[in-house]
Design goal:
Helix content: under 10%
Mean pLDDT: 92
Number of strands: 13
Low-confidence stretches: 1-7
Order of helices and strands: EEEEEHHEEEEEEEE
Strand content: over 45%
Distance between the termini: 34 Å
Oligomer: single chain
């Protein structure tokens, strides 16, 4: 995936898609952002993009002072391969991130996101209170695919849709949502990913 250049204002979680199953499961790896702890973080995930629930995840049992995705894949190849086979995930080498507006099987789609903001009196800036995401098609209609209300300790200050990854086996996409959270001790802020699944045929309403 393509990332913006690192800056003093942000630290980024890195996201690596692996592949889809034929029944709505999606596998990926994230390297969570390190907020000045001097550690390396890694997580392997298989997520059900119908229910938006993780069905399997793995991360190192001990904290790592250094590492990289190539070495982790090599060291734990047996574990990852066994789980990919168990959940019938087929790796894709040429996965492309489409934009928020895209075409699929002669239909056009647009993913839209609405944030409800509220002031945080303790910190003096606005935070996201709740988020709704919709997918719209002139041919099929509209449906809501995500609704979330943040908790009272929320420090999320923004969410936007980055794009979608289309399953090669089903009428389904994984919507990538970029979230910005206030850093633990202020800037730099942390950029993370949320994945939301959407069927491109069913449950639309005009």
């Amino acid at each position: 995936m393509k990332y913006y250049q690192q800056s003093d204002e942000y630290i980024f979680e890195k996201f690596y898609p692996i592949g889809w199953s034929k029944n709505g499961l999606f596998a990926y790896i994230v390297e969570p952002a390190d907020e000045a702890a001097g550690l390396y973080y890694f997580k392997f995930v298989i997520k059900n993009m119908i229910s938006d629930k993780e069905v399997y995840s793995w991360k190192p049992e001990e904290e790592l002072e250094k590492g990289n995705i190539r070495q982790m894949w090599k060291d734990y190849a047996t574990t990852f391969t066994c789980k990919l086979n168990e959940y019938k995930i087929i790796q894709q080498k040429d996965m492309k991130l489409l934009g928020t507006e895209f075409s699929y099987k002669d239909n056009k789609f647009k993913v839209t996101l609405e944030n409800k903001m509220e002031p945080n009196e303790d910190f003096g800036f606005e935070v996201v209170k709740g988020t709704n995401i919709y997918i719209k098609s002139p041919q099929l209609g509209t449906k809501q695919i995500y609704s979330y209300t943040e908790n009272e300790f929320n420090l999320c200050i923004g969410k936007i849709v980055q794009g979608v990854l289309v399953s090669p086996f089903e009428d389904r996409v994984a919507v990538l949502v970029k979230t910005e959270k206030c850093g633990y001790e202020g800037p730099p802020n942390v950029i993370e990913q949320i994945l939301v699944g959407a069927n491109l045929v069913e449950s639309f309403r005009k």
